[in-house]
Design a protein that fits this description.
- This protein has 6 helices and 4 strands, in the order αααααββββα.
- By secondary structure, the protein is α+β, with helices and mostly antiparallel strands.
Length: 156
């Protein structure tokens, strides 16, 4: 009987620890779910709505409507300028103190790739979009980085 009670107790503790790690992971990855949803909207050609979706998580963005509208307009016109969405790949993710996340994506469109950077912040237990930016100079940045790594052999 003691073995049964001890086994039951150990199983209960293991279950609680497992469930706590699952809940913590779910809260931790909710920012990734936000990025995934944003890119599903971009894939569907709803670029401006995707910007709204992310920025609506941050009440402070309501205080700068002109900036938000400009970003929505620019991001909304991407398909006209760049062609249809093809794919996206996360280039890097940096997480600081379990409260701030920076993600940098390579986003392919028919005519050219762009760079999309998303920052998330969790000030009070809930992830919000802290910043969203994009630029079409990604190929220039890649070329510059590659050129910076050039090595010239000085021996003939």
């Amino acid at each position: 009987m003691k073995r049964y009670v001890c086994s039951l107790f150990i199983c209960s503790i293991a279950a609680v620890l497992f469930l706590n790690s699952v809940v913590a992971h779910a809260e931790d990855s909710s920012y990734q779910a936000m990025s995934d949803h944003f890119f599903s909207m971009v894939k569907a050609g709803k670029n401006a709505e995707g910007v709204d979706y992310l920025l609506d998580t941050n009440a402070a963005m309501k205080k700068i409507p002109d900036t938000v509208n400009q970003l929505k307009s620019q991001f909304g016109s991407l398909e006209t300028l760049m062609g249809s969405y093809v794919s996206h790949t996360k280039l890097i993710e940096t997480k600081v103190a379990d409260m701030f996340v920076y993600q940098h994506y390579f986003v392919a469109f028919d005519r050219q790739p762009i760079s999309v950077r998303i920052s998330y912040y969790k000030p009070a237990g809930k992830w919000i979009c802290y910043g969203l930016q994009f630029d079409a100079n990604l190929t220039d940045e890649i070329q510059k980085k590659a050129d910076d790594n050039l090595r010239f052999d000085t021996q003939y």
